[in-house]
Amino acid sequence: MTEVNLTINGQKIIAKEGITILEAVKQAGIKIPTLCTMPELGFSPGSCRVCVVEVEGAPTLLASCMTDVREGMVIYTNSERVIKARKIVVEL
């Protein structure tokens, strides 16, 4: 399987092509909160929006569990924008 180069929170990462941002982040030892990956809660994948991340060049925040990695992606899991969005989602 082909590998891609990513930058996550300033850290250079090599990940397997075809995996999600969430998987790549977990493999790098970085934690992203999730709810929809907990089958006992009954959420559909991507529905909780708690795992959103900021990707340079993307017009909106992206659900890390639904977005595949691409070569050269620059990802932020803890930017002010991401933290604010997660807080809003959880408060709903």
Outline the structure in words.
The protein is α+β, with helices and mostly antiparallel strands and 92 residues long. It has a single domain, classed as Roll (Ubiquitin-like (UB roll)). Helices cover 21% and strands 23% of the residues. It contains two helices and five strands. Strands 2-1-5-3-4 form a five-stranded mixed beta sheet, with helices on both faces. Strand 1 and strand 2 form a beta hairpin. The radius of gyration is 13 Å and the shape is globular. The N and C termini lie far apart (40 Å). The mean pLDDT is 90. This is 2Fe-2S ferredoxin-type domain-containing protein. Pfam families: Fer2_4 (PF13510). GO terms for molecular function: iron-sulfur cluster binding.
Q: What's the shape?
A: globular
Mean pLDDT: 90
What is the fold named in CATH at topology level?
Ubiquitin-like (UB roll)
| CA-based gyration radius | 13 Å
The chain-level structural class is alpha+beta
Task: Kindly summarize this structure in a few lines.
The protein is an alpha+beta fold. Helices cover 21% and strands 23% of the residues.
